[in-house]
Amino acid sequence: xxxxxxxxxxxxxxxxxxxxxxxxxxxxxxxxxxxxxxxxxxxxxxxxxxxxxxxxxxxxxxxxxxxxxxxxxxxxxxxxxxxxxxxxxxxxxxxxxxxxxxxxxxxxxxxxxxxxxxxxxxxxxxxxxxxxxxxxxxxxxxxxxxxxxxxxxxxxxxxxxxxxxxxxxxxxxxxxxxxxxxxxxxxxxxxxxxxxxxxxxxxxxxxxxxxxxxxxxxxxxxxxxxxxxxxxxxxxxxxxxxxxxxxxxxxxxxxxxxxxxxxxxxxxxxxxxxxxxxxxxxx
Length: 283
Known about the structure:
The protein is of the alpha+beta class. About 35% of the residues lie in helices and about 25% in strands. It has nine helices and twelve strands. An eight-stranded antiparallel beta sheet has the order 1-10-7-12-5-4-3-2. A four-stranded antiparallel beta sheet has the order 6-11-8-9, with no helix packed on it. Helix 2 crosses helix 5. The termini are far apart. The N terminus is likely disordered.
């Protein structure tokens, strides 16, 4: 449970100042947290994606849809051959339960799932702290944000980008995430580019175990009615991807909060504007 976690407040007091200026906030955490869990997740995803017998066993399923009709997906995803990219989507107990029920060999990945659970739990805590900080200084048309984190749907995505010859295409196209808040934990190679509200490009310290980045997304825009924009546009282009045989691993969480009918109506009304805004950025 969120309130039972005994994690000290690590969100900077001026977090929202950084977000409104640069599009994201970066802050230091105790490095041993990521040092202990990231290698375990990396090993599990590599082993799972390298084993053809496990591709079907852990195959992605749609658990549910949210208020926007967006899918809440869980499991192993292989993107197109040209992208050479794998995802694993972890949605807490829901993921573990549906995999157990389907007969997937989860016992071979116990440490992998425990590590993902720790990331998911910490993502909720940081999202709560950030929401609480917002409520302290600002008001929201749909009411305080922090209480809604208690009912948040949290998904953690482990990514494996395999080497490829392609040099022009993005590894992840420029977009706004669908979530409320996105904590970006780590990447083993650089490539993430974040855009400030004025269009300035920023690189995060994404390869450091002692620093994480967080930024708002579409559902934050919805509950604040666009007062602070549509979220933070970002994309990935790893300039080293075609020069190395080493995979690029990344770990990111998406914290979703429940939306009211008014939130949904507003978000749907600006969907075309959001798509247009995504297209104006270039890495």
